[in-house]
């Protein structure tokens, strides 16, 4: 939603209105590319070594999001970041 439906994101999340549209779209694109990087290398058998790299990169994006919400004192938003961070690290370590 962040990457392709900015208006819905602005309505759903209060923080979207406080940052530039380009930032929100960039984060959405990074998350999509990270998700594809988790799935495609293993699914296709082409360069499966990229899967843990994508997982660590996605973990960095999610950690940045958690820190963003922490600094804004949006503690309720951090929970999903922690879950996605744990999943990304689990995949990264499991694929190493």
From TrEMBL:
Which Pfam families does its entry note? DoxX_2
Q: What is its main location?
A: membrane
The entry's keywords: Membrane, Transmembrane, Transmembrane helix
- What topology does it adopt in the membrane? Multi-pass membrane protein
Under InterPro entries, the record lists: DoxX (IPR032808)
Report one GO cellular component: membrane
Q: Where in the cell is it found?
A: Membrane
Organism domain of life: Bacteria
Transmembrane segment boundaries? 21-40, 46-71, 78-94
Q: What is this protein's record name?
A: DoxX family protein
């Amino acid at each position: 939603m962040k990457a392709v439906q900015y208006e819905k994101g602005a309505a759903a999340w209060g923080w979207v209105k406080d940052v530039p549209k380009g930032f929100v779209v960039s984060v959405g694109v990074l998350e999509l590319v990270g998700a594809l990087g988790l799935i495609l290398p293993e699914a296709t058998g082409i360069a499966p070594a990229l899967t843990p790299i994508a997982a660590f990169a996605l973990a960095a994006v999610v950690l940045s999001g958690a820190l963003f919400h922490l600094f804004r004192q949006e503690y309720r938003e951090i929970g999903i970041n922690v879950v996605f961070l744990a999943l990304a690290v689990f995949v990264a370590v499991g694929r190493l």
